[in-house]
Specification:
Strands 1, 2, 3, 8, 9, 10, 11, 18 and 19 form a nine-stranded mixed sheet that branches. The chain has an eight-stranded mixed sheet with strand order 6-5-13-14-15-12-17-16. It has a two-stranded antiparallel sheet with strand order 4-7. It is globular. With 404 residues, the chain is α+β, with helices and mostly antiparallel strands. It has helices at residues 29-40, 65-73, 77-83, 108-114, 123-137, 182-188, 262-268, 274-281, 324-341, 345-369, 371-374, 388-391, and strands at 8-12, 15-25, 45-48, 60-63, 89-94, 100-105, 119-122, 142-143, 148-154, 157-162, 167-175, 194-206, 220-224, 227-234, 239-247, 257-259, 288-295, 303-304, 307-309. 30% of the residues lie in helices and 28% in strands. It has twelve helices and 19 strands. It folds into two domains: 8-59 and 69-77 and 121-193 and 297-369, 3-Layer(bba) Sandwich (FAD/NAD(P)-binding domain); 86-119 and 201-295, D-Amino Acid Oxidase, Chain A, domain 2, CATH 3.30.9. Helix 2 packs parallel to helix 9 and helix 9 (324-341) packs antiparallel against helix 10. The structure holds flavin-adenine dinucleotide.
């Protein structure tokens, strides 16, 4: 669907609204990747973000080969690689003894097999790469301080209302507003966001405060009863990122992503190997946050009329296969390709939904199934000769070539 870029002022009853071809709600990794993919397809995009300024909470994220292929097709791979770290291997260790339970090959072998390798990166760095590319295409493409409230559809487009009272109009709307998506509730009905029983802490430790022995190799996963910790360097090796998981019967704290206390995390991992406890003790409290991991029922439909959902808004998943952001990137690449190939907007959205729902559902289900392996009461029984993400075939999906 090739259209000239345009911005029009159009009249509507009692109001004058700025019109863009597609409105994206949410400037997270999913929303920005979607905006970039649509721009590359020749579509004019406006991204509306609720936060007053653009940014991401600082922590690391892994990008498996399928995500790296997606970034390549979005044209930002070189910029991404400049800020990412590419481990050759990872090890899985026993929580008390430190014994290596599995060696995981993440380097050139993956590149030879899938066309790309495995990366880890600071979320804020990936976010900036995507935002810079979107703004380079169109300096007015991202609008902050706009919280989506509601939308109304008719035969020719969608009118979007924001909490500040402003209205905008577009030919289609993509809701990339995360696990607590209001776009999703507006399209498919209000529904509870459930606490899954898992809590995650994310922290960043200056690498000079980490015992050198604990960095061989730099990328390591530690598993123990009801707990797991995954850690790897980011920011050119200056910081060691960790994400630590624990099981909880409830979540009473205010908010879903909140500053955390080192003391609380240290208590959760008491009795673990010193290479874990020393890393936890070294995290500056300003760089420690905790998340309640949430779920919503899987959606079989992602499109209603001229509006669709993408990323966590469509398919929130547990992060045990490290695929949430990767899946949002896959969604975005396929969305852009659907817009290129379709004759009109409804066909583009139908192609996007048709190509993505099954894949997302598979990854969501498989991510949940990993919990018993990574929180095992008997880590010595851990078998991982072929890493499970690779064994599931997740890396063999190239969003730039799958049928759309
Ligand atoms: C502990 C943890 C570890 C993870 N590790 C990995 C990993 O290693 N690899 C990986 O691929 N994934 C990982 N993930 C998953 C990944 O972080 C998410 O899947 C991904 O960030 C989803 O991106 P998104 O853009 O869909 O949503 P989000 O990142 O949630 O972005 C949504 C955006 O929408 C905005 N917004 C929300 N509501 C509104 C509104 N009403 N109006 C306007 N804007 C709004 C928000 O402010 C935000 O900017 C992890 C997740 C967790 C919790």
């Amino acid at each position: 669907m090739r259209r000239p870029w345009r911005t029009q002022r159009i009249g509507s009853p009692g109001d004058v609204m700025e019109r863009s071809e597609v409105i994206v709600i949410g400037a997270g990794i999913g929303g920005l990747a979607a905006a970039l993919a649509l721009q590359r397809a020749g579509v004019q995009v406006r991204v509306f973000e609720q936060a007053p300024a653009l940014g991401e909470v600082g922590a690391g994220i892994s990008i498996s080969p399928n995500g790296a292929l997606g970034l390549k097709s979005l044209g930002v791979f070189d910029e991404f690689r400049d800020v990412a770290y590419a481990p050759d291997r990872q090890v899985v260790r026993h929580y008390q003894t430190g014994r290596v339970l599995a060696h995981v090959s993440r380097g050139e072998r993956l590149e030879d097999t899938y066309g790309e390798r495995y990366y880890v990166v600071h979320r804020a760095d990936l976010h900036r790469v995507l935002a810079d590319a979107v703004l380079a295409n169109d300096p007015a493409a991202i609008v902050t301080g706009h919280r989506f409230a509601d939308l109304q559809q008719d035969g020719s487009g969608v009118s979007v209302r924001f909490d500040n009272g402003e209205w905008k109009r577009a030919e289609a709307v993509i809701g990339a507003d995360g696990v607590r998506s209001r776009v999703r509730s507006t399209l498919f009905g209000a529904e509870e966001v459930r606490f899954t029983g898992y809590v995650a802490w994310r922290g960043l430790v200056p690498i000079e405060h980490v015992p050198p022995d604990a960095l061989d190799p730099p990328s390591q996963v530690w598993i123990g009863p009801g707990h797991m910790i995954n850690r790897y360097p980011v920011r050119g090796g200056k910081l060691l990122n960790f994400v630590a998981f624990a099981e909880r019967s409830g979540w009473e704290d205010e908010g879903w992503s909140i500053p955390a206390k080192v003391e609380e995390l240290a208590a959760e991992f008491q009795g673990w190997h010193p290479w874990v406890t020393q890393v936890i003790a070294a995290v500056p409290e300003k760089d420690l946050f905790k998340w309640a991991l949430c779920a919503r029922s899987p959606l079989m439909r992602w499109v209603r009329g001229r509006a669709a959902v993408l990323g966590d808004a469509a398919h929130p998943l547990l992060p045990y296969l490290g695929q949430g952001a990767v899946m949002a990137i896959e969604d975005a690449v396929v969305l852009g390709r659907a817009f290129r190939q379709a004759a009109d907007m409804p066909e583009a959205l139908a192609r996007y939904e048709g190509a993505r729902v099954g894949r997302a559902r598979f990854v969501v289900e498989r991510s949940s199934l990993q919990v018993p392996r990574f929180h095992s009461p008997d880590p010595d029984s851990f078998r991982h000769d072929t890493p499970v993400d690779e064994a599931l075939g997740l890396f063999g999906y190239d969003p730039a070539v799958v049928p759309v």
